[in-house]
Structures are given as structure tokens and as C-alpha cells.
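Researcher: I'd like a structural prediction for the single chain below. Treat it as a standalone chain; there are no partners to consider.
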Amino acid sequence: MSASTQLSVGFIGVGKMGWPMAARLVQAGVDVCVCDARADEAARFVAEIGGSRALTPKAAVEGRDIVITMLPDSKIVEAVLFAGPDCAALAMNPGAILLEMTSGAPAKTQEFAARLAQQSIRTLDAPVSGGVARAITGDLAIMVGGDDAVLEIVRPVLALMGTSIHKIGDVGTGQAMKALNNLVSAGGFLIAAEALLIGRKFGLEPETMLNVLNVSSGMNNSTQKKFKQFVLSRSFDSGFGLDLMVKDLSIALDVGRETATAAPLSALCRELWAGAAQALGPGEDHTAVTKHAELIAGATLGGNNQKTG
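Model: Treating it as a single chain, here is the predicted structure.
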């Protein structure tokens, strides 16, 4: 039996990303108990993948070596850990490890770590990058903040979910890095969308432009992995929500304010994404920000019609 399968895991949050991540652990033989605010989703996970489920965070983590939280934001993580009689912190054993894999707020995670340390519970923040497709294959990039010795204990478990594990610094630094990564990604997406729209109105075909960009200096992650797949196809279904991108950009700007770093371009980027989210409404994929850019430009990147009106 490998080191990873000897460690028991309470996994809280089996959403779009949490489901394939938890599935990787179960399929590798790890003893996993899942919990989700949607009890039917946790039940479906067990029926389709395996493991066990609990109806409350407290029940999910009782006696577990590692607790993984993969939730929408730090506010929800705080409620899961500390709010009410069914919270996780009430049942975590001394010596247990919290792996906070949410793309959360670094300052809040540092608060959580300090509170849990009073119970001799150790914390690592370990947000991920790569999307649903790489979560399914176990090829995520994982950014870890916390103690080196604790990382080595959980490394076999992390290695089941990601192939690129980066130690960033102290607790909270992984989440700071994740937010800054998404800031760069968001900026690259917007500028690529605008360039493609300019070209489209000039008479260039979007697919041709992308082919050139992807062998030239204008290449970025979005030109390679998002525009043909989710924008030109008009599927807008990458699996990462527009609201989550705005949250991550807000975290990046918060880090900038906390460090007194002037970041005017970053602030504009965040406002453009937030404006698109407000205009498009809830439930949109982050690649749907293109629809807002198309509306402003008066052109579309999909179909045969060059102009929107």
C-alpha cells in the first residue's frame, strides 16, 4: 500500500473541480469521505465513484488524517470550518492537516490557520490551476503555502491530483500566487479577444488569426486553449465561472492594496471582467466575457456574421 492510500481524507466540496479531484483519490485507493452542501451530489459521487459520504462537515472529517476543502470562496470555507454545531473544526483531531484548496483570500486562510493551530491542526493552502480537464487526468498545477514538513506528508495525496506541485512560501502564499496567475490569464484573454475582434472587422478569419498567434509572439494560454475550444465553437463551457474569475481578480487587487502596490492596469482588468459579469448575469462561464467584448465592438467571433447588429 502506498503512502497516499494509508492516509484517510475528508473531502468537502464535490463541485465541478472537487468531483474529479476527489475521484482521483478514490480511484487510487484512498479512504475518502465526501461532503457537499448538496447532499444529493455527495450521494451521486459515492454511487458513481465510490468512497463514503457524510451529511455534515463534522461527520466528514471525524478521525481523518487530512481534510480537503474545495469550495467557492473563503466565506464558505469559514462557515464549514467554524460555524455551528456541525462544523469541521469540532471534529478534527490534533495532528490532522487541513489542505485548503479553494482559490481563497490569503489573509482569511492565515486567520483559519492560526485558529486551527490552537487545536494542534496544521494548515496548507494549495489552490490549483488547469481546469476541469486537467483535474480529470490528474495533471493540475498545485501552488502550496505552508510548512515544508507538512507538505512532505501530504505530497503523495497531492501527486494524485497534480503533476506540478510548487512550494510558494508560508500559508496564504499559494492563494496569492493563484490569484496573480488568474490576473495574468484574465488580462491575456481580454487583449486576445479585442485583437481578434479588430481583425474580424478588418476581414480576417478568427481561426486563421489564432493559428498565426499560436506560432508567434502573441501566443498565450487563452489563444491556445480557450478561443477555438469555447469561443469560436460558441459553447462557452470551460467549467470555470465568470463570477469565480471576478472573485480571483478581486483577491489579486486586495493583495496589491495590502502591499501598497500601484496596479492601474490590473484594476482596469478587474473592472472590465466585473462589468461583463454584471451585464451578462449569473451562471456564465468565464469565456462568455467574449460576448460582452463582442457587444462593445459590434462584431462577433462566431458564425458567419461579422457584425452583431
